[in-house]
């Protein structure tokens, strides 16, 4: 069953079209990744799906509801990690989690979640005193505190150290195993390859490819005599065109 | 605990953790009155210039106006602008609690701080100088509520139109000091020049201050001053709710 259905999504700022007729579906329990260069339209796409921006064209349904019209009902069902957003400087980690837990009818156990993002020791640390990676971990925890059915995570592990990234992958797989559908944006090819079931590659706001990681790699032949990896496939897909 | 009460409780704790802001909202009015009263002994002596009234009794309603101006133009305005700029409001828009709930929580916290700061000021003045309260409590309450509503509306409107937190703080300061002048902080009551008085009649804090001064001496505030504060409250709140951007 498709949990997210995007068809013909178009978004313009002024006379610039930053997302252009993008269509894809994400199945229940799938981990779906969006790749693309800076400015390709990834954040715009996922924030339209999260109901935070209104598209100029196309239709988006999430859990059978309209992303924008039914935003009210979807807020309780979809957990979102924004690429750019901060918390109050003096808000402590534990307070933030308990506060956000109180917003949802059936929240996750905040202490367990705190442990699974590795912030147990920081429970009394004010937000302003967290390191960049710790802020990111808190942001992931807040996206998951409401036991969402769909998690939308923009730049999931940016700023995390290698061990923390593996821990977060484990956490994402665990929530997927409980049936949560995950839509994530990443710039890390190993993360895309190991974590995601399918990938969409955006180029200049358009959908350039949509396949499994293995499928994307198979699409390019050997590079410099080596078997191509996902990064080669990504670079080939996003290479500036020479036909003009 | 409900989301709204937890949100308000959390914002109250954050408010108290900001020592400078908390001082200015809660303690500054009391400190100002006590310092002025001690520095200027004539402040608490009956004065022939004021029909035998003690000047401090004329100054307390002005300090109430100052308290309103300080809480709205610095504390409330600063927080709102910062919460938008930093994406706190936007973050909330992804949850079942709307960002407007956070603004509501902040309004509640600031109103509570204003009430506590005003009460402390009146108690300090009574204890230190034996000053008296208003002759008419109902009139004072009406004038105070209308004045606070007007200045809250001005804060919301500035937060709504300012492009970023810096601009908002700048506009806040540009409004704050003239407002204090028109409220009579430097030239209380009859000491304000006539021309300034005419302008003050039409500023939200100037009108509120005069309405509270009238209440203090037992008169019902002039309809003009009630109309001006009510008008500011209605117009600024309506404009702010239309113009406010959540991100
Ligand atoms: N609010 C906005 N107003 C105007 N232009 C915008 C706005 N948001 C995004 N854009 C433009 O839309 C394009 C896509 O932006 P978007 O944030 O979706 O990119 P992205 O793929 O998430 O990039 P990154 O990898 O850097 O996060 C960019 O060129 C950006 O300048
Ligand atoms: Mg982005």
Automatic annotation (TrEMBL), chain B:
<dbReference type="InterPro" id="IPR052902">
    <property type="entry name" value="ABC-2_transporter"/>
</dbReference>
<feature type="transmembrane region" description="Helical">
    <location>
        <begin position="20"/>
        <end position="44"/>
    </location>
</feature>
<keyword id="KW-0046">Antibiotic resistance</keyword>
<dbReference type="GO" id="GO:0043190">
    <property type="term" value="C:ATP-binding cassette (ABC) transporter complex"/>
</dbReference>
<feature type="transmembrane region" description="Helical">
    <location>
        <begin position="169"/>
        <end position="187"/>
    </location>
</feature>
<keyword id="KW-0472">Membrane</keyword>
<feature type="transmembrane region" description="Helical">
    <location>
        <begin position="56"/>
        <end position="80"/>
    </location>
</feature>
<feature type="transmembrane region" description="Helical">
    <location>
        <begin position="224"/>
        <end position="244"/>
    </location>
</feature>
<protein>
    <recommendedName>
        <fullName>Transport permease protein</fullName>
    </recommendedName>
</protein>
<dbReference type="GO" id="GO:0140359">
    <property type="term" value="F:ABC-type transporter activity"/>
</dbReference>
<keyword id="KW-0812">Transmembrane</keyword>
<dbReference type="InterPro" id="IPR047817">
    <property type="entry name" value="ABC2_TM_bact-type"/>
</dbReference>
<keyword id="KW-1003">Cell membrane</keyword>
<keyword id="KW-0813">Transport</keyword>
<dbReference type="InterPro" id="IPR000412">
    <property type="entry name" value="ABC_2_transport"/>
</dbReference>
<keyword id="KW-1133">Transmembrane helix</keyword>
<feature type="transmembrane region" description="Helical">
    <location>
        <begin position="139"/>
        <end position="162"/>
    </location>
</feature>
<feature type="transmembrane region" description="Helical">
    <location>
        <begin position="101"/>
        <end position="127"/>
    </location>
</feature>
<comment type="similarity">
    <text>Belongs to the ABC-2 integral membrane protein family.</text>
</comment>
<dbReference type="InterPro" id="IPR013525">
    <property type="entry name" value="ABC2_TM"/>
</dbReference>
<dbReference type="Pfam" id="PF01061">
    <property type="entry name" value="ABC2_membrane"/>
</dbReference>
<feature type="domain" description="ABC transmembrane type-2">
    <location>
        <begin position="20"/>
        <end position="247"/>
    </location>
</feature>
<dbReference type="GO" id="GO:0046677">
    <property type="term" value="P:response to antibiotic"/>
</dbReference>
